[in-house]
Amino acid sequence: MIGGGHAVEFETARGRVAGLRYGPENGHLLIAVPGLSQDARSFDYLASKLASGDRQVVAVSPRGRGESESTESGTYGWENHAKDLVEIATRLGHPTFDLMGWSFGGFVALTAAALFRDRINKLVLIDAVGRPDASALGPIARGLERLGAEFPSKSAYVDLVLSSGAMAGYEDVWRPYLEGDVIPSAGGFTTRTNKNAVIEDAMYGAQQDPYALWQSLTMPVLLVRAAREIMPGLGYVVTEEDTKRFTAEVKSAQIVNVDANHYNAGFHPDAAIAIQNFLSAR
Q: Does residue 272 form part of some domain?
């Protein structure tokens, strides 16, 4: 899964943002934004499918993740990350571009579409649109407990994350990603992702009204929804109620359900096919 893209870096007004580019440098631009504690590598599967002779995919690691800079408190939040994306597109010479966000990245993408609607051609949201079922928040919160902790080995970290069962059926995809998630520390290994950055973004998101962003969505939108509960017996990140409401209120929206949970929706072949068809349609 890992290693298909070429490393890129961008200086923005808020700090350095690193990422991976797939496809030709002169291709039509699709920027991809990952989940709350993830980095650009989580788009390796999708980006390798979507990049083509006339499309480049630039997957970014939001500040505080991956190889990107950890900036000072108060520099995070959906709006600041959205501004980073638009600056990156400008630096790449693209006055307009397509945008794709997964989970937390979806809300950053929604914010970018609201603030800079004339810059976004098409918008792809992967299992992010409104407020999750309350029962779906528990696994997400528990998943953040690994951040900043010390692990005796890479395998100890990988085994801990996979033991949750959230990646069941996709372990072969997640294992190489997780192995690159940690770096050497005084006590063995710790996560590359900055816990303070993630916590600030999580607290920011909890105070926002994602539904207020929908009224700005005048461009074509594809919502890829995870049709499986986040964990068996728990709820959905994109609820059935929000799915119906979204299609009713956002006339430019299309919905595709994929047979995967929130963590694995972006690795499902049906997601890649649906996104490819959506982006290619005239």
A: yes
Q: What are phi and psi of 25, to 5 degrees?
A: -65, -25
Residue 91 CA, distance from chain mean position: 21
**Does residue 96 contact residue 110 with C-beta atoms inside 8 Å?**
no
Q: What is the CATH number of the domain that holds 92?
A: 3.40.50.1820
Q: Is residue 199, in this structure, part of any structural domain at all? A: no
pLDDT at residue 69, rounded to an integer:
98
Residue 242 to residue 238: CA distance in whole angstroms: 7
Residue 173 lies in a domain: no
The closest alpha carbon to 59, from 95, 9, 129, belongs to 9
- Identity of the amino acid at 216: S
Q: What is the pLDDT of residue 52?
A: 87
Number of domains in the chain: 1
Contact, 225 vs 193, CB < 8 A? no
- What is the structure's pLDDT at 2? 40
All residue ranges of the chain with pLDDT < 70 are 1-3
Name the H helices within 2-133: 44-50, 78-91, 104-115
**Alpha carbons 154 and 183: distance in angstroms, whole number:** 8
What is the per-residue pLDDT for 68?
98
pLDDT of residue 126: 98
Residue 145 burial (C-beta neighbours within 10 Å; 0-12, 13-18, 19+): exposed
Look at residue 31 and tell me if it is in a domain.
Answer: yes
Give the pLDDT of residue 1. Answer: 34
Domain that holds residue 248: 6-133+208-280
Q: Where are the beta strands (DSSP E) in 62-191?
A: 97-102, 120-126, 150-151, 182-185, 188-191
Rounded CA-CA distance 100/110 in Å is 9
